[in-house]
Amino acid sequence: MKKFKEKQYKFKSLFTVLILFNISFSQLNIQTLSTIRNGETLHSKKGKIPSYYTDILLEYRYKGFLAGVRGEGFSSPELNNQYDHINQRYLQYSWKWVNAEVGNFYEIFGKGLILRGFELPGFIYEDQIKSTQYRIIRDFDGFKIKLNPGPLKLTLIDGETIDPLLDPKDKNRRSGRVTGGEASISLPGSISLGTAYLEQKNDITTKLISRQLSWSADPLLEKIGAEDLSIDFYAEYANDGNNFFSKKDNGDPEALYLSGSMIWNYFGTSVEYKDYHQFDFGINDPPPLIRENTEVLLNRSTHILNAFAEKGYQIEFFVSPFASTRVIANYSKARNDYSDTYKPLFQERYIGVEYTGDKWSVRSFFDSGQDDLVSEYKRITTGIAPEYSFSNGSILGFDIQWQRIRRGSPPFFDYNFTNFYTSLKLMDWHSLSFTVSSERSSDPDVTKSEKYFINTSVGWQPIHNIGIQFFAGKRRGGSACDHGYCIEVLDFEGVEMRIETQW
Amino acid sequence: MNRLKSLCVFFILVFTVQLSADEAVNFKLPNLKNKNIQLTELLKDGPVLLDFWATWCKPCAKALPKLNKLHMKYLEEGFQVIGINEDGPRNISKVKPFVRSLRVNFPVLIDGNGEVMRKYNVQNLPTTILIGHDGTIIAKYIGFHTKDLKKLENDIQEAIKNYKTSSTGNE
C-alpha cells in the first residue's frame, strides 16, 4: 500500500509539473486519462480491490512537424500485475502533398477490408484473466509515406502489427509484420478507383489484394436539374493476393462489400451487402453491417461479426416529415455459413421515432431480433426517453427500456427472461450532471435469481478541458459497442473516479 | 513508471522552447460528394467551426441542428461550420441520409480512419473547435451543452469581427 501511495504521489508531482509547463508553452499538447477505483468485478474471487490506471499522451507540434509519445500504467497494491510502458512514440512530417510518419501509426485501406488500424478513444479495457486494464490500440510500428498530388493518392506502409487484446506484459503482443500500399485516383464524373496490396508475415505469409470503386451521381443529377435527388455507390472486392478471383471451394480468403445510398428530399435509404469468407487477419476490420444502437439494452444485445464465414445485408430508411421529427427504420440480416448443417442466423428489425422541440425532446424505439449464435431465438426490446430543457440550459431526462428474450436450444433448454432498465438524469446543472440508473434482470446466465444493478454517477466539468466522473454502485457488463468496435465489458461493483484532461 | 516519467520530462525540456498560440493543423478530407476539401482553402473565406460527430452519438444529433442555425445565421459574413464525420468505415453509407434527415446544410467531411480527430486530439464526441481565419484555434468545446451556445456564438461573432478587420486592413 505504501508503494502504491508513493507512486501516486510521484505521479501527481509529475502531472503538476506538466500542467505548469504547458500553461506557458502551448505548442505542447498533453492528454491524460486516469481511473481510480475500489471494487470487484464479476467472477473475481479476490473481493474489493483498489486499482489505478493512467494514460498520458504528449505531443509537440511545430509547423508540419509532430512528435508524440504515449505511455500507460496500471497498479494495484493487492495484485502482482502492475506495469508501465511506453506504448507509442512517433514522428510525423507533412509538407504540401507529402506526409511521412515513423514509429506508431494508423492506416486504413479502402473501407478496412484488408487493413485498418485504430484506437478506441477514452475506452479502457479490463482483462478478466490477467486482472489488469489497458487501452485498445491497434496500430502499426514502422513507417508510412502518403503522397496526395491532385487526384492521385499513394500510400506505402511497413510495420509490426499488434494484438490489442493481449496485455502489455505479453511478449507476443507485437509478433507480426505488414508491408503494403494503396493507390487511388479520382476521375471526372465523381468516380474514384483504387487498389491496395499487402503482405502479412506471422508464422506464414498472407498476401491480400483489394479493388475499390466509388461513384456519386450528384454532379450528373445537378446537371439535369434533379438537385433534390442524391445517389452514391461503393464497391470493394478483396481476396488472396495470389489470384485475381478466389475460389471459395479451396478455402481461399475472399470479401465483397457493396453499399449505396439514395436520398430524395427528406426521405432517404442506405443499403449495404457483405460476403466474407476466411477474412479475419487481425489487421483488418470489414464493416459488420449491423446497426450500432446507442440504447443501453440494444447496445449490449449486439451481433459480433465473424468474418470467417458471414454473409448478409442491411437496409435503413429515414423520413423527416418536419424539421423536428425523424423516423428511422432498419433491417439487418447476417448468416454464418459454418457447415452444411449449421448456419446460424442473425436478424434485427428496428424502428425509432425522434422528436426535438424547443423544450421537450423524445426518443422512442421498438426492436425485434434473433441471434442464433447466442441461442436467442426471439428478442423484443422497446423504450422511450423524454427530456425537458430548462431555460437555464439544464436538462432533465428519463429513460425507460424493457427487453424480453427467449433463449433456447430445445430439447436441452428453453426459457424466457426480461431486462428492465431505467435512468433519471439531470444534465448541465451549472457544471455538474447527475445520473441514477437501475436495471433488473431475470437472466439465469447472469444470476440464479432476479437481480438488480443500481448505480449513481456524478459528472463535473469545471472547465472545458477537465472532466471528472464519479461512479458508485453496481454496473452490468456484457457486450458493448463503442466507436464502432464491440467488446466484452465486465460487471463492476464499487466506486470509481475517472479524470480526463486535455491541455 | 520511471521510463515513462523520464521521457515526459525530456520531452518538455527539449521541445517547449517557443511561445505561440495553438495553430490549427491543415488537413485534406473528402466531402459527401467525394471531392477533397482542404482547411487552408476554407479559412480563406473566414473563420471555421469544426464539429467532430458520428451517427451513433446521441448528443451529436442534438448539436447538429443547433450548429446548423449558427452556420446559416453567419454564412454571409464569412463564417461556416464544417462537420467532420467519425463513423469510420462502419456506418459510412448512413452518413449522407443522416445529415439530410437532420436538415443540415453545412459541408460534412469524412474522416475515414480518425486521422484528423487524432490531429486535433479529440477524445470525446461531439467536440467543436473554432478556428480563426488566420489559422489560430480560438476555442475548443468538449461535449454538447446548451448553455455553451451563447458563449460559442459570442466567440463566433468575435472571430468574424477579427476577420472583417483584417480584410479591411489588407485592402
Could you name the key traits of this structure?
heterodimer, A: 503 residues, mainly beta, 24-stranded antiparallel beta barrel, two-stranded antiparallel ribbon, 3 helices, globular, B: 171 residues, alpha/beta, Glutaredoxin, 5-stranded mixed β-sheet, two-stranded antiparallel sheet, 6 helices, 43% helix
Strand share of the residues of chain B?
A: 15-25%
Low-confidence stretches of chain A: 21-26
Helix content of chain B: 40-55%
Look up the CATH topology of chain B.
Glutaredoxin
Strand tally of chain B, please?
Answer: 7
Question: How is the biggest beta sheet of chain B arranged?
Answer: 5 strands, mixed
Overall tally of domains of chain B: 1
Mean pLDDT of chain A: 87
**Which strand order do you get reading across the main beta sheet of chain B?**
5-4-3-6-7
General form of chain A: globular
CATH architecture tag of chain B: 3-Layer(aba) Sandwich
Which assembly state applies to the chains in this document?
heterodimer
Order of secondary-structure elements of chain B: HEEHEHEHEHEEH
Query: Pairing-aware structural class of the strands and helices of chain A?
Result: mainly beta
Radius of gyration of chain B, CA atoms, in whole angstroms: 17 Å
Residue fraction in strands of chain A: over 45%
Give the N-to-C terminal Cα separation of chain A: 31 Å
Number of strands of chain A: 30
CATH class (first level) name of chain B: Alpha Beta
The CATH superfamily of chain B bears the name: Glutaredoxin
